[in-house]
Amino acid sequence: MEKPKETTEQGQVKSRARVRDHGEVFTAEREVKAMCDLVRDDSFNPDSTFLEPACGTGNFLLEILSRKLTTVSSRYRRRPFDWETHSLQTLGSLYGVDILGDNVAECRERLFEVWDAEYARLFKSGKDEGVRKSARFILDRNIVRGNALSMKLVDGEAKDTDEPIVFSQWKLLSDWTKMRRKDFSFAHLLENAEEARATVPDSVPGGGHSRLPQNPADRSSLPRNPAPGEQLELFAVPPQEPSSATSGCGPGSAAGGCGRLLFSKLYPSRRVFDE
Ligand SMILES: C[S@@+](CC[C@H](N)C(=O)[O-])C[C@H]1O[C@@H](n2cnc3c(N)ncnc32)[C@H](O)[C@@H]1O
Question: pLDDT tens for residues 158-215?
Fold first, then answer.
């Protein structure tokens, strides 16, 4: 596995203004690794899901991606088709939010570079442009520019817009020609995580009731109460009308809802595109 770029001690701060305005101090590699080791099994498990609500340039997500790819590569190093498919799913299991646009762009790029370098290392001459495009598509949706406190997308001035942060859950369909994408508002994910935690006794590590952010966005317009049976592995979703994929919940859409079901085609080369 190629190692992700290191965050040096010097590289932990970009400017005093950014530290003052956004609390931007990046975590050094040693601490990142030590913290990831606290959830070691999950960090190597391609199926586990991670969300970094203040991801910066992606130091934690990068380490986790590297670990997960180690597992994927050890399983599928001789099977390009399988590696491509499972590594795309792995990319789809990592989510990030940051309020600063340059951090989001850098985070996406660094994640892509780690994934792409591993792809090249394993299958030197066989890289498929469609698969690479799919990787970028997933990262563009999963690494979001927004305010993790208000759960809204932000504009170029890092000010809240009216658009909610929406994440996509990716699931490979059994024929391996399509990925199902289901969109969830961040607010709902937190609400449901909150409900789920409330049922776990405090004695369980990570369990017990924890509070939502003090200043959440107005969530009254968002659908509530997931129907029984709609509990997914990690996310709980209220049922919604399937939408046309082109009117998804991402940046620029007027959607504002969540739980939208979309299908992204994996073309023969497994490109992921909206239908
Ligand atoms: C202390 S840095 C940590 C970055 C990264 N997690 C790391 O450890 O290297 C905090 C990050 O949070 C971002 N940030 C600050 N306020 C935020 C907010 N309300 N929503 C999302 N991101 C925010 C900053 O832009 C910055 O990148």
Answer: 999 999 999 888 887 776 666 777 888 888 887 776 665 555 444 433 333 322 333 3
Residue nearest to atom 4 of ligand 1 (CA): 56
Structure tokens belonging to residue 96: 């990030």
**Which tokens belong to 270?**
């497994």
DSSP code for 231: B
Please give all residues whose beta carbon lies within 6 A of any atom in ligand 1, as ranges.
Answer: 22-27, 52, 54-56, 59-60, 97-100, 103, 147-149
The answer to whether position 226 is within a domain reads no
Q: Is residue 210 part of a domain?
A: no
d(C-alpha 250, C-alpha 164), whole Å: 9
| Domain membership flag for residue 102 | yes
**pTM for the whole thing?**
0.74
Residue 245's domain comprises 16-198+237-268
Give the CA distances from residue 28 to residues 7, 44, 115, in Å, rounded to whole numbers and listed in that order: 6, 20, 21
Number of domains in the chain: 1
**Distance between CA atoms of residues 20 and 14, nearest Å:** 11
Ligand 1 atom at minimal distance to the Cα of residue 59: 9
Pairing of strands 94-98, 166-172: unpaired
User: 254 lies in a domain?
Assistant: yes
d(CA 73, CA 191): 35
Measured in Å, residue 100 CA sits from the centre of ligand 1 at 8
